[in-house]
Amino acid sequence: MNRPVRAIAPNEAAALLHSFTNHLLYSLAKDQYSATELDRYMSLALTVRDRLIERWISTQQRYYKKDAKRVYYLSAEFLMGRALANNLINLGLYDTARDAMKMMNLDLGDVLEQEIDAGLGNGGLGRLAACYLDSMATLDIPGYGYGIRYEFGMFDQDIKDGWQVEKPEEWLRLGNPWEISRPEYGVPVRFGGHVEEHTDDHGRLRVRWIGGEQVVGMPFDTPIAGYGCNTVNTLRLWRARASSDFDLRYFNEGDYEKAVLDKNRSETISKVLYPSDVKQWGRELRLKQQYFFVACSLHDIVRRHLVAYPTLGNFPEKVAIQLNDTHPAVAIPELMRILVDDHAVAWEKAWEVTQASFGYTNHTLLSEALETWPVELFQRLLPRHLTIIYEINRRFLRQVMNRFPNDEARLARMSIVDDGNGTLESKRIRMAYLAVVGSHSVNGVAGLHTELLKANLLHDFHETWPERFYNVTNGVTPRRWLLTANPLLADAITARIGDGWMTQLEQLAKLVDHADDPVFRGEIRSIKQRNKEQLARYIEAEHEISIDRASMFDVQVKRMHEYKRQLLNLLHVVALYLRVKKNPDLAIVPRTFIFGGKAAPAYATAKLIIKLINSVASLVNKDPAVKGKLRVVFLANYRVSLAERIFPASDLSEQISTAGKEASGTGNMKFALNGALTIGTLDGANVEIREEVGADNFFLFGLTASQVSEFQRRGYRPRDHYEQNPELKAVLDLINSGFFEPEHPDLFKPLIYSLLEHDTYMLLADFQSYAECQERVGKTFLDPDRWTRMAILNIAHMGKFSSDRSISEYAERIWKARGVPG
Q1: pTM (2 decimals)?
Q2: Lowest-pLDDT range, 152-166, 222-236, 327-341, 775-789?
Q3: Which residues are catalytic?
Q4: What whole-number distance in Å separates Cα of residue 635 and Cα of residue 118?
């Protein structure tokens, strides 16, 4: 395993072992005989944490002494995954820990496997936030992550009879050795109540938000170590507590149950990630969660600023706050409330400070994913913020009116408050618009995404403020997604080009010179095969499905959503199945189709697609006619630690979303970095990946974003494709007939009906192009030398897709923040 270059004392492993045994004894009250595997993991984690804490404290002191500008990253999700291996690598202690465990006759790999993923997210948004924290620390940027310490995370996914079943993800059940509670920094947060106006001694109108209920945000800090440097930054997550253990009024009146129920209701705020918003209580809880963590975080940011400076006047010069999507957008009126109400700053100055402090990252092109909240709900939960939003909107629309006179339609389109049909019940707050108006920068996360934002979703705003719009293409940290996840490949790369790529990923370009070296190609093939062997063993142990190691591992793992088109992939699987059934002697490349991903609990269509994948898998895997040619696997409970097994073992990466729908994607980058070839559309970051690796090293198919728009503008009739393509018709008819679920023959009819009547995401329009492209994939796979050369060239051209590059761009262009090395 590679590590930062530094001198390691010969007795360092012994010192680490001494600390390990001390923690086993004094922190866990165990000895080597009574210790469980979990105890050993906890002891090693605490040992590593000890080595982080000194750097952690000195990092914070350094920031104060250097008068550094600080960056605050507000995100509803942080999908951190496991921390121990990553911290060992970033601290340069991986080899030392392995040697120390050997002295105890322990295998470090077995110890690492005991860690439970910190699952505080459900997909790319949260994993991106985790990569960005890693890069900020590695680049010595004074960065802080702020979010919620969800007690249950997303959910654990079981598959029963082919259906997704959600179980609570109790990631904290056995303890979390990485976090340190900071009760002294608890923050009171108000909900409900009412607004009172009064005139102060200077004749100025002042506003007070009073009454309602209060909860307390309790902070828990996790150290985030940079790679090969002395910087350790902070992720601060907030847990909701009742404002006092019991409301003494109820308690003294003998209503103990009422007191306990109120306490539990308060603490529900930090229980679960993304409660379903199908019902009123779920919508209310979501808004409460968003305001809760934003209010706690801004209170903390302002408190920290006032420790160092006597005024908030220089706040934007010393503070940059990045909103990771719309979830934290209520931070804008909250900062205004703090400035205007709590610190008596004049509105104009407060607005200037607010706009200069915030940046907004948009992560979606789907209009239905842009959050809006009923005005009625805001009025009930956040009455002061509603008045502030109305005032922001009034002043903003006056600007628009001055710029574009007599354009009522534009005013209606751009208003932060959507009037609906004019009734209170229909009025909604458009959070994305609030984020755009209240920020000095708005960025998309891939070149195509940003252009589509400017042209469509936020066109009016771009026309008003073109200078506010930036593109910062997403990236992934090579420390997690190559060095930790794929040590065999990392070592092979380092042996050829040195270890500079770990912090300067563009150095991978040196591998181009080795793409035609038969020895290096053989190494890369051998490493891929060993990684496939490891994943195959995992699948066989967990799912009891035998796997052909020589088959192509054709993989699509990501959040389940119709626009990501797992169903298109499955239609191709069924097409291959029918071809082999029709002609048993058909020569096709043996494939193992691997799916994985969670569907939101209330997303019925996505859950039905999971069921169809499993029904197809059940039949195909048992059919002797296709044995040795096709295997279908749905990997349950997709998460970071499982992704770390999957990416290194994948041959083909499925990035097949409808063009114009995926903002960026980061799975596409992780696959390519680990030597998988991509089959994909010109969507999200696929466009830039293809530009970097070259058209000859990327399997492209499907409509472009502009062609999709044109199809929809002209009137798309999906039945035309069904009627004109015999293979597609046979596939859809087979699924519709109940063949894959004979006991419930009507089960999948809604999916087929939706495709034939609507096909919102153009699966039928792209099917033929996809099937033909998969033919090219199969022919290429039969030429191992060519395939491996393409894989090496994919790895070599991944330099652009490092999160270090992304964070450098944010720091230079948006945050105006510099690294503060130790």
Answers
A1: 0.95
A2: 152-166
A3: 363, 558-559, 564, 666, 670
A4: 19
